[in-house]
Amino acid sequence: MVPFQHTRLSLAGVLLVSFAASSVAHAEDGDTPTIIVTASREDMMGKATTASQGSVSRQEVALRPIYRPGQLFESIPGLVVTIHSGEGKAQQYLIRGYNLDHGTDFANFVDDMPVNRPTNAHGQGYSDISFLIPQMVAGIDYTKGPYYAGIGDFGSVASSHTRLVNDLPNQISATVGTDGYQEVFTGGTLHFRDGGRLLGGLDLAHYDGPWQPGQNFRKVNAVLRYVKGTEKDGFSVTAMAYNSAGRLITDQPARAVEQGLISRYGTLDPSDYSRSSRYSLSAHYARPVGPGQLSVSLYAIRSTMTLWNNFTHYLDDPINGDQEEQDETRTTFGGNASYSVQGRLAGLRVEGEAGLQLRRDAVFVDRKHTKDRDTILGNCFVAQDDGSTLEYAAVDGNCSADRVRLLDVAPYVQATVHWADWLRTVTGLRYDRLGASDTSLVNATHDTGHQGLWQPKASLIVGPFAKTEFYASWGKGFHSNDVRGVFGTVPSQGILLAGGATPLMSSTTGVELGMRTNIVPRLTLQLAAFQQDFGSELTYNPDTGQDEAGAPSRRQGIEVSAQYRPLRWLELNTDLAFSRPRYHTDRLADYGLEGPWIADAPKFIYSAGVLVDGLGAWSGSLQWRRLGTAALVDGQQYPQTGGYSEWNMEVGYALPHGWKAQVGIFNLFQSRDAAAEYYYTARLPGEAADGVEGYQSHPLEPRSARFTVTKVF
Predict the structure, then answer these.
(1) What is the value of pTM for the model shown?
(2) Fewer Cβ atoms within 10 Å of its own Cβ: the N or the C terminal residue of the chain?
(3) For 599-628, how does the pLDDT look when each residue is reduced to its tens digit (9 = 90+)?
(4) Buried b / exposed e across 182-216, counting CB within 10 Å, b at 16+?
């Protein structure tokens, strides 16, 4: 199967290039086409801190075939964004041998606002990016590893900072697609005489999908943004609003499909559902002050979420089923302030930055046992460490209900010293002070705690020599843990394992060696080898619907990324990532593990793509992604998932008078792989009381097409 896939890659690439070449020949018979340089990522030579740091251009964002907003981040080398439940939940993120679930250890920022939600109803670090409108994205800056003083919680494996546009052409577009997809976007910019710009964007979408019954997913996105001045001397204010609702189709037992109980795209519980909202206000202010540059950003976010999920079906409650309702209401305030200077010290060129980051969350989060969403049942269940299930009575309908307060204050400093034209160092120090309180309405307890963590970071950069730079980086970082597990207010998390208590902050240490080079004409190449150790691996427990702290872990791996531009209108790119994920402790039994294998941690991730732009009226892209194999049970090498392979394509043609037509084709070669696959115990009607352990999967959507017409005024 793999050789055939590589053959299809070559054929598809040749077809797209041939198509592009024929278009040039045709254009030469008439008008000469407008030619621009295609570049998916910014050249970071002389600017990067590490070999794996990068910046995705707006051009790639505009060209890339996007099935859902989260796939914008697959432009980050070695990152897969998939889904296991439905459009109304945060996507799944996988990178560097980590299954980051819905966002653990992948810090997402939009307009400098943090997207990750600590102590979330469904998963620690939950990062739902569905509120993002692709047309409003100016680019994505990304990092990997704990080597950056300005990045804290959840950012120790990877991070992304999504920038918003400061000017948007007036436009309207309409999209229709197979599987019941419809979308309308309109936006534009109002320019004032004093240089100010008022941008607006409104996006309405509906999607059923191939699912039976259909998702009937609806969402409304709106952005209003005022910008004046420049990045270094100006300000902006941005308001964003998002609301969505629709059915969830979670991972289903493979045996239910094999037995004909449901179709490949069916569900055993069609009442699973989601409702989400997010409203935010963010502001930026920047100006030169004295010898340096002052930058300040502030944000306020109000979000709500309700998920109804039934993962184990009739395992715990053979009469009513195991559906759970998870609710969250969150208010987040925070901001960043930094002051940077450039100058000379002892004859050396020095760049320094000092900053302060603050974030405060007020959260109400609960979990209920429900049937068909509408009936709240009075009994609750939770799995115990010995494999048994504990049944207990709900309190006011709640299996758990907590009021949580979180406060993270983090000062940091970073200095870049240019020791010579070919040698520079970047050193930083960050200190996070995390305080938390948790009031349980079920256990009638109140707990408070705090923890501080120093995080030194250092990088050595040598070069450029012959258009080549070499990097060596080391650093410490962390992720926070769900405070309900720290204080033991959730029944299963309140029972401490022999491995010890769950800390508020689990630290990580990473080291990375690498290089980037432009020595070959038209070819940009990056290589990084890394090792990262975590004091506690976060794993998802489907019984409680929470990420829980587990054993220490280690990842070792190699990443290779390349972009080749044989023609000014054409780019070929590829990203290869290999990793070895293992629990890293000689006390495996204390954590209930038989061996070192980590569930759902992929061994490799490949991607390849073709970008075409500025080829007369034509533009387009072809993208292939391969998610590798992974163990499916903690501590066991087998069973394994085979991962998935998928091809997506988009072609656009610019028409006269500001019109443009686009067609996107997704899952081009009709892969029948699973978008996400797990292995756990569930019970179908008529099965033994202790259920059946087996594969649970959420399939890739079948081949589909979307047609878009855009008018720019």
Answers:
(1) 0.91
(2) N
(3) 999 999 999 999 999 899 999 999 999 999
(4) ebebbbbbeeeeeeebebbbbbebebbbbbeebbe
